[in-house]
Amino acid sequence: MGRVKKLLALVMIPVLAAGLLAGCITKEDSGSSEKTRIRIWTIATQTDGFHDPFVRAIEDYNRSHSDCEVVMTTFENQLYKEKLQINIAGDELPDIFYTWGGGFSKGFVDSGKVLPIDSYYDRYAEELPRAALVNCTYDGKLYGVTYVSPVSLAFYNKKAFEEAGTKVPTTYDEFLECCSKLKAAGYIPIGNSVRDAWVLGMLADGLTLKSVGPERLGKVLTGEEGSFNSEDFITAVKALRTIIDEGYMDSDAVNLTNDQCVAKFYEGQSAIYITGSWLAGGFYEKRGGQYVNVENPDDFDCFPLPVFENGNGRITDYLGGAADTLMVARSTLHPDKAVEVAFELARSVSKYSYLSGVGVPAWKVDYDDSGIPAITKKVALFSSNATSYTLWFDTLMVSDDKKTYQRLLTNLFFGSITPEEFCRQMGAELSK
């Protein structure tokens, strides 16, 4: 899934120009001893909550390793997904590349383009539990390292809720009532992007999880057992259709990117935004002593997605889990150094993302975290009390299934298919 991103040119982050990550210094261009240059691709663009954690992590590593220079290039989320598929096929990869675990990267691993890193894990085992690496483990072998365990939540504007006279919902019926009151009070109840299909997927995935339940859902999406074309799945898709029909989503959602929708949420135009826990850091981002996105972070809070009356899903079932992954290309000329950099950066990004409020750490917390934002502590509490994690559908499913799912979501939004047709077509796709 994606985070708060802005479409940027495929260029290195500006700090490169300042020389912080200026690249490899060789004997020819500096007269000094040669340094190993390790290139990394990420989606930590300047508007992304993980931008600063990655920059700080790389800065720390470069400062403490005189024999190596890490160079990062960042890409916008959706564009990167397309570029990664092309470059994997063409075997044109950097030493380390960001990716999503689960089904998204299975093809990369199966193609033999990713370096297995089991032999390097032992030195970090006490700091990073193996359970956190389940989504980057394939056929019992480890192919990546993660740093945070994000979850999907409904972030909301407390002032909007107060003005509308509504409360935090815990059931789907309460959710509809809440949206009705917010709309009557002049707010867009749910900020959402259809142009960036993964954002609409955040809502659709959450409804499905809470209607179907995590155990059966996971088996259906991976083709292990059961069918998408069944009652509880249809219930979830009908629920999404109701939200669309009642006008509870942004009327301009088809034209808006995730960044634009998030901006409207920050500005108070929309009252609820359903996305990953990385959004929390955006409330507290500061420049020059002033908050960048909002006037007062305390105006915002979050709650778990509500449940359905059928009792299949629990309020403590979450979408998410440790899927953000750094993988090492098998083609790297410096495998030992590249794997070391991947682990060291993951550990540092885990720390800095938690301290800045954008992520729940997958690594052991052995530093002072007393100053982290209140909303991040709440997200961490939700995470620690989770009864299950289910990866976002576009991460859990393999590529072709994911594309079909996102296409059908768009068709459902436009009303060109019914919920029943949606589920029939998804059922057929997953049974291939």
How does this model look, in words?
Helix 2 packs across helix 12 (335-355) and helix 8 (197-212) packs across helix 10. This protein has helices at 27-30, 51-64, 77-89, 103-110, 118-121, 158-164, 172-184, 197-212, 214-221, 231-245, 258-266, 335-355, 374-384, 393-396, 399-414, 419-430; strands at residues 36-42, 68-74, 96-100, 137-138, 141-142, 145-146, 152-157, 188-191, 270-276, 286-287, 290-291, 300-303, 317-319, 324-328, 388-390. By secondary structure, it is α/β, with parallel strands linked by helices. A hairpin with a 2-residue loop joins strand 10 (286-287) and strand 11. The strands form five sheets. The chain has a five-stranded mixed beta sheet, with helices on both faces. The chain has a four-stranded mixed beta sheet with strand order 8-9-7-12. It has a two-stranded antiparallel ribbon with strand order 4-5. It has 16 helices and 15 strands. It folds into two domains: 14-149 and 321-366, D-Maltodextrin-Binding Protein, domain 2 (3-Layer(aba) Sandwich); 152-319 and 390-430, Periplasmic binding protein-like II (D-Maltodextrin-Binding Protein, domain 2). Residues 1-32 have low confidence and may be disordered.
